């Protein structure tokens, strides 16, 4: 039976590239996003590749939308075999740590960390109803960020939210290994998306100064290919780990 992958935050950028790649890999695709389906200009690519997909609109921060996502995936495709937790938001305004508002903190944590925690919970409960096939019942991939480790005091809520995602990776990996559900994490660095377009000059300068050993911007496709590998059957003795997709930015050097 053809397997099914849910990708959150899938209407554009990294999430959309992941969804397209997994579709090419042979998965049924469930795209979950806050924007209406009509505004997702990339869906023609899915049709051209003859990818079986559904588009579910909702807010990851809302319990009822998370439940509806899982119900629609199961109703259309019969099960869920992969969850890619990609959905995330940046602060609406960058502010010094001493000026950060509780409202901004709650919004970012509510989507990036709480949403991740509880959509994983409900998806896992569905996965546990399904059989183990060839040593694996399911795969979960969390898209966190280099900001899980790198301090940015002008967007502290984002850093905290992604550090939380890293711990969720470990927690779920620990809890689910005995259930043959494997959990992985991908930490993108500077990737060319809408989120980074507002600070392009800053990152252009860092690249020009040699802060990135691989001296270019990353692409959503760079991230998608790593997720594709995790979702294959090539990582059956690996769980709770992460891969940096950051051009080597994590390397400390003199």
Task: Walk me through this protein's architecture.
The structure is a single chain. With 254 residues, the chain is α/β, with parallel strands linked by helices. The chain has a single domain, classed as Rossmann fold, CATH 3.40.50.720. Helix content is 41%, strand content 15%. It is built from eight helices and seven strands; from the N terminus they run βαβαβαβαβαβαααβ. A seven-stranded parallel β-sheet has the order 3-2-1-4-5-6-7, sandwiched between helices. The model has no long low-confidence stretch (mean pLDDT 95).
Give the overall average pLDDT: 95
| SS element count, helices | 8
CATH topology (fold) name: Rossmann fold
Count of extended strands = 7
Largest sheet: 7 strands, parallel
Which percent range fits the helix content? 40-55%
CATH superfamily: NAD(P)-binding Rossmann-like Domain
- List low-pLDDT spans: none
Strand order, largest beta sheet: 3-2-1-4-5-6-7
Question: Any idea how many domains?
Answer: 1
Cα-atom Rg, whole angstroms?
18 Å
State the end-to-end distance.
52 Å
Give the structural class: alpha/beta
Strand content: 5-15%
Assembly type of the shown chains? single chain
Q: Outline of this structure?
A:
The protein has 254 residues and is of the alpha/beta class. It has helices at residues 13-24, 43-48, 63-77, 102-127, 156-176, 194-197, 200-208, 220-231; strands at residues 4-8, 28-33, 53-57, 82-85, 138-143, 181-188, 242-245.
């Amino acid at each position: 039976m053809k397997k099914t992958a849910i990708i959150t935050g899938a209407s554009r950028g990294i999430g959309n590239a992941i969804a397209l790649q997994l579709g090419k890999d042979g998965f049924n695709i469930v795209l979950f996003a806050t924007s209406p389906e009509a505004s997702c200009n990339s869906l023609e690519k899915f049709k051209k590749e003859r990818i079986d997909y559904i588009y579910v609109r909702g807010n990851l921060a809302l319990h009822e939308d998370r439940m509806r996502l899982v119900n629609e995936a199961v109703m259309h495709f019969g099960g869920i075999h992969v969850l890619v937790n990609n959905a995330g938001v940046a602060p609406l305004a960058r502010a010094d740590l001493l000026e950060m508002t509780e409202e901004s903190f709650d919004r970012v944590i509510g989507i990036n960390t709480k949403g991740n925690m509880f959509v994983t919970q409900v998806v896992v409960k569905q996965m546990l109803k399904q059989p183990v096939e060839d040593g694996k019942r399911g795969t979960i991939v969390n898209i966190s960020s280099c900001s899980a480790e790198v301090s940015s005091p002008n967007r502290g809520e984002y850093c905290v939210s992604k550090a939380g995602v890293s711990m969720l990776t470990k927690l779920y990996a620990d809890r689910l290994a005995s259930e043959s559900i494997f959990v992985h994490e991908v930490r993108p660095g500077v990737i060319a998306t809408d989120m980074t377009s507002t600070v392009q000059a800053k990152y252009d300068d860092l690249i020009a100064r040699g802060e990135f050993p691989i001296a270019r911007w990353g692409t959503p496709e760079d991230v998608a290919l790593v997720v594709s590998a995790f979702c294959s059957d090539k990582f059956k003795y690996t769980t709770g780990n992460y891969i940096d997709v950051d051009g080597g930015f994590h390397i400390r050097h003199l």
